[in-house]
Amino acid sequence: MKTAVITGGNKGLGLAQTRCFAAHGFAVHVVARTKGDLETGAKIQFHQHDLGDWRDTGYLDRIHAAAGGIDVLVNNAGVHLKKAIWDVGPDALEHLLDINVKAMMMACGRYCALQRDSGGAIVNISSMGGLMALKSSAAYVTSKTAVIGLTRSVAVDAAPFGIRCNAVCPGFIDTDMTRAALANDAERRANIERRIPTHEFGTAENVADAVHFLASDAASYINGVALPVDGGYAIGF
Q: Which helix (H) or strand (E) holds 37?
């Protein structure tokens, strides 16, 4: 049985990824601060860890030792910050970069060190904010753009060891968080839907399927890409 580690796999997009990988026969190890909506069992295990402590990648060592290897690492954990650039304070910025960039970079590095004799696949979750500007989200966009740069660099450095690294860039996805954010702004939601060529929001399962594909043997010659899962929003309409 193959092994996957998914950070932030306890809720939202991450939970859909956890369920997707488990359904495809993986033993899934979820790393997060809380169990959230996660249901553990024979195929899904929970490991409590705060990714804000970005220097600590010991969770990967422990899972690697217990499982005998890690076939797939999905760096899904992330935080959002919706503020205009002049309202971004140093503490909020530090917290955002600690989780969205530093923790991901350290995880990629440690994974490559652990798997350099065995190969593997990394999928980093960026955002359409890594591909285009988003209003009042300068810090978030900066962090998600950095994820794409990190992904490309890891892809180049790790390729000789049989490790691929790709990124997924979700667009407007119909999650609890999105619904809550737009609950009192029907006009904005309608405007967004008009711009999406498919005229509908995506689902968490759409994102999970893309992540699983990039991690699978079906994508064995795909390396260093930033794959939009946005119904065509980022290309304009």
A: none
